[in-house]
Design goal:
With 358 residues, this protein is an alpha+beta fold. Helices cover 34% and strands 24% of the residues. It has eight helices and 17 strands. The protein has a five-stranded mixed β-sheet, with helices on one face. Strand 7 and strand 8 form a beta hairpin. The longest helix is centred in the middle third of the chain and has 23 residues. The protein binds ligand DP6.
């Protein structure tokens, strides 16, 4: 191997929004959840991460830049992902450039990683999901890793739990698994992005401030103190997951919306049941819920489902384009951006996927 070459790969991965939430770990290091979860992968045009990974004998150490600013790779989560991917690295040959990297060379070679989010990292919108999924996917391409998306998802999971669901498009299930080593805690695709393509997603960015309680510490506190979390994980989610899978497979929007809203509300109830209680939603979030509930009831059947992650932003899933147009009109009337309503902006998109920028 000469000293001059650099080999690079780029990948693009969208974020995902859970409709059955992951909240609580049974193993903090391996990131193993207390229940299964289900998510929808978003359109990469709006919320995605693009990551370029490079390897060269000239690099002295592993380094990473996020949105142009260098960040530390010393955290356990990055180290776990890098170690697991390096273990699976294989021989790479680029005859045109005269580069040959043997399997054993990967242990010595260092990486440079540049990652960009196409949305503000501080916007309180899930960025770790897309970020770790993209990192693992890009490294797997660079190192000619053989493992399929599900196997890679078990590595991305060790970066951030929700990241494992971003390796696929469409609707994705993270199976909690039973093994102590986490080998069966991975994501599978339930249906691809074409299966239910009339759905339309609008995100109401209620606040672009960073959340006060991170998901990681919030769920730790819930596991330690909330009895409702125990009940949810054992009794509620196992049944709800089966119903949700059925609703998705049969494109039953009424059932999908009911389950999605109920699960979001229960997750936030768990947060309130935590000691001290965690408040992720604010008054505007609550008013959006009331608005959607009232509208759905007046229509006779649900037009829109809502779900909120660990922050006040509303993810609204409309049954079709017409419902989305009506929803947007209603939102702009009742919650105009940058007014006293505290609303920053709207992100409008499709649910679909693209994960490989070549
Ligand atoms: C509310 O995946 O961010 O968005 O595994 O500690 O990195 P860590 O947590 P993270 O938690 C996501 C929580 C959630 C629900 C979900 O996405 O399922």
């Amino acid at each position: 191997m000469g000293e001059k070459w650099v080999l690079m790969k780029t990948a693009q991965t969208p974020t995902n929004i859970a409709v059955i939430k992951y909240w609580g770990k049974r193993d903090e290091t391996l990131i193993l959840p207390v229940n299964d979860s289900i998510s929808v992968t978003l359109d990469p045009a709006h919320l995605c991460t693009t990551t370029t990974v490079a390897v060269s004998p000239a690099f002295q150490q592993d380094r990473m830049w996020l949105n142009g600013k260098e960040i530390s790779l010393s955290g356990g989560r990055y180290q776990n992902c890098l170690r697991e991917i390096r273990k699976r690295a294989r021989e790479v040959e680029d005859k045109e450039k005269g580069i040959k990297i043997e399997k054993k060379d990967w242990e010595q070679l260092h990486l440079h990683i540049a990652s960009y989010n196409n949305f503000p990292t501080a916007a309180g919108l899930a960025s770790s999901a897309a970020g770790f999924a993209c990192l693992v996917f890009a490294l797997a391409k660079l190192m000619n890793v053989e493992e399929d998306e599900s196997q890679l998802s078990a590595i991305a999971r060790q970066g951030s739990g929700s990241a494992c669901r971003s390796l696929f498009g469409g609707f994705v299930k993270w199976i909690m698994g039973k093994e102590e080593d986490g080998s069966d805690s991975l994501a599978v695709q339930l249906v691809d992005e074409k299966h239910w393509d009339d759905l339309f997603i609008i995100i109401a960015v209620v606040s672009s401030r960073q959340k006060e309680t991170s998901s990681t510490s919030g769920m730790r506190e819930s596991v330690e103190t909330s009895l409702l979390l125990q009940h949810r994980a054992k009794e509620v989610v196992p049944k709800r997951t089966i119903q949700m899978e059925e609703a998705i497979k049969s494109r039953d929007f009424a059932s999908f919306a009911k389950l999605t809203c109920a699960d979001s509300n229960q997750f936030h109830a768990v947060c309130l049941d935590t000691s001290p209680p965690i408040f992720y939603m604010n008054d505007t979030s609550h008013r959006i819920i009331s608005h959607v509930e009232k509208w759905n009831r007046s229509e006779g059947s649900p037009q829109v489902a809502y779900t909120f992650d660990a922050g006040p932003n509303a993810v609204l899933i409309a049954r079709n384009r017409k419902a989305a147009a009506q929803l947007l009109q209603r939102l702009l009337f009742s919650f105009p951006p940058n007014s006293d309503t505290d609303l920053d902006s709207y992100i409008i998109g499709d649910k679909t996927i693209l994960q490989d920028a070549g």
